[in-house]
Amino acid sequence: MLRWGVVVSGFYAAVVLLLLLPGMLLLGARHTPAMDEVLEMYLDGFPLLYAGILVGGAALLLFLSVDTAWRRMQPRRHVAVTAGLASFFAAALAFCVLLCFEVAVYADHPPPLWEGREDLFLATALGAWMSLWMIWGTLFYRHYRDSSSAVSAVVTWLLKGSVLELLVAVPCHVIVRQRGDCSAPFVTGFGIVTGIAIMLLCFGPGVIALYRKRLDEYGENARQRS
User: Fold this and answer.
1) Which of 23-32, 34-43, 170-179, 210-219 has the highest mean predicted lDDT (pLDDT)?
2) 32 secondary structure, DSSP code
3) How confident is the model at residue 100 (pLDDT cuts 50, 70, 90)?
4) What is the dihedral angle through the alpha carbons of 153, 155, 159, 161, rounded to the nearest 10 degrees?
5) Which of 75, 143, 173, 219 could disulfide-pair with 188, CB 3.0 to 4.6 Å?
6) pLDDT digits (tens, 9 = 90+) for 161-211
């Protein structure tokens, strides 16, 4: 089981680094990016940092599932970590929805309240993300702290959330593309890539959980026959 966790994590890392990051650049650019533009993106700190967070979160959720697969443990040991990870990704989805709505309405310009105050707008955006993280973390922790299937439950919520986020991000991307905005397509492209990445992230723990369930059923059947 542990080996499959490593394999799934490695595959997810390859998809994020080799497909989704160049895809984000392709969605935002006005023309097909050249190879030097792709290499320049890999030298930028933010895309690699964000990819590392996604891959690290996926690996943690996977190994939390693997670690509890062979013994009955109190869920309180891992539920805080699970809630923190799941709420971060839920906050990312909600934040991307807000950003996509913002660029669809205001294009390349910040809302009137932050006109000419880009630093304040960035600080407000970061504060909104942190607030969403705390809200979702509190909800996940309070709801699943006594649950023995916290990982599979929050993964199901994240899968639904990623689908809803894509239903917002894709139409917003079409709007800003047809309007000919300059930087707005990068925002909606970031939203699309985030939604796809979190959707793919959910399949790893889901596959491990199904594999674990099948093994548990085999073990239970063997004990009944004996």
Assistant:
1) 170-179
2) P
3) very high
4) 70
5) 173
6) 999 999 999 999 999 999 888 888 999 999 999 999 998 888 766 555 555
Which residue type sits at 57? G
Q: Which residue has the higher pLDDT, 163 or 214?
A: 163
How far is the CA of 93 from the CAs of 121, 136, 143, 161, 186, in angstroms?
19, 11, 20, 7, 16
Residue 79 DSSP label = H
Contact 36, 224 (CB under 8 A): no
Q: Where are the domains of the chain?
A: 2-225
Q: Tell me how far CA of residue 138 lies from CA of 57, 91, 131, 147, 154, in angstroms.
A: 18, 12, 11, 15, 13
Q: Which of 55, 74, 65 is nearest to 2 (CA)?
A: 65
Pairwise CA distance, residues 25 & 33, whole Å? 7
- Pick from 67, 100, 85: nearest CA to 201: 85
Q: Report yes or no: 100 and 187 within 8 Å, Cβ to Cβ.
A: yes
DSSP secondary structure letters along 127-140: HHHHHHHHHHHHHH
Q: What is the DSSP letter of 149?
A: T
